Amino acid sequence: MPAFYFDVDWNTHNANFNTNYAQGLRPTAIAMREAQGVALYSAAWLPNDGRYWETWSGVDYQGLLQWIAKWQAQGYEMKVLTSTESLFSAVMEKTNVGTVFVSDLADGPSTTPGTLAYQLNAYQKKGSNYVPRAIAIYGSAGAARRYAVVFEPCQENWSYRFWDTDIQATQARRAFFDDLMYRPTLLGYSPEGTLFSVYRDDSIGPNNWACSNGQSGAEVTATYNTLAGRGLWALSLSASPGGTFASVFVTTETPCPRELRVVGSDVANLSSTFDPIIIGLMQSSQWPNVGQL
Known about the structure:
Elements: E1 4-8, H1 10-22, E2 25-35, E3 38-47, E4 53-59, H2 61-72, E5 76-83, E6 88-94, E7 100-106, H3 116-124, E8 130-138, E9 146-153, E10 160-165, H4 167-179, E11 183-189, E12 195-200, E13 209-215, H5 217-228, E14 233-239, E15 245-250, H6 271-285
Antiparallel strand pairs: 1-3, 2-3, 4-6, 5-6, 7-9, 8-9, 10-12, 11-12, 13-15, 14-15
C-alpha cells in the first residue's frame, strides 16, 4: 500500500526510506520544515511502476548541486524538490522528459534577470512551453530569500498563473481560477508562511485532482488515505514553518487533448465564413487557450 508520514526527523525518514524501498515504493512528494533547529521530513510514497529513481535528503546547497550533476550525467532528471532555509531534499528519475533546474533566483521584478519572476515569465512566453513542476524556497525570510525551480516542458502551449500570497488571498484566487477551469499543480510554503501557487489551464479530467492548504499533519494524513483509496497520489506536498500542510493530488500527469469549443449564437452565412478563419489563426499562432472559444 502507499505510505505517508509527516514531521519525522532524518533518522526516522531514513528508516522509512529503507522500509518503503524494500517494499517496492518510490517517493512522489517530499516536504521539509525546521522546528527548533531540527529538520523535519514528510513524504508520500507510491508503488513503483518500474522506473529508476534516486533520492537524497538533508543536504546543503552545494551538496545538492554536486548530487544533481552526478545523476544528470547518468541520464536522470529532477522530479521532486523541497527545502528548509538551508537543507534540501530531491528525487531524480531516469527519463528524457527534458526538465530544467534553475536555482539561486532572487525576489524582484520580472524585468530583472536573476529573479524568480523574470525566469517564470521567460519560460511562460509563447514558444518556451515550460511550466514549474517543483520549487524550493530557501534562505532566511525577507531579502535573503532564494528560489530553486524545476521546470518541465509541456507538449502543447498550456498557459499557467503563479502567485506568492498569504492564505486568505490564496483562497480567493483559488476560487477565481477554479471558475476559469484552471487547476493547481504546485503549492509551496515560504519561510514567511506565504504560499507559492501554480495553476495551469489544462485538464486531466473531472474528479481527477484535489488540493488543500492549511491542514494539520493529522488532517493531511487523513486526506492522503481518503484520496489514495480513490486512486489519487501526491504530486505536490509542502510544509509551512508552523507545521501546516498544502498538497495537490492527481490520478495522472497527462493532460487531456484540447477540444475545440465554439459558443454563442450561430449567424447565418457568417459562422461558416469567419469561424474557420479565427480557428485557423488561433491554432497556427499557438495562442494559450487555443481552441477555447
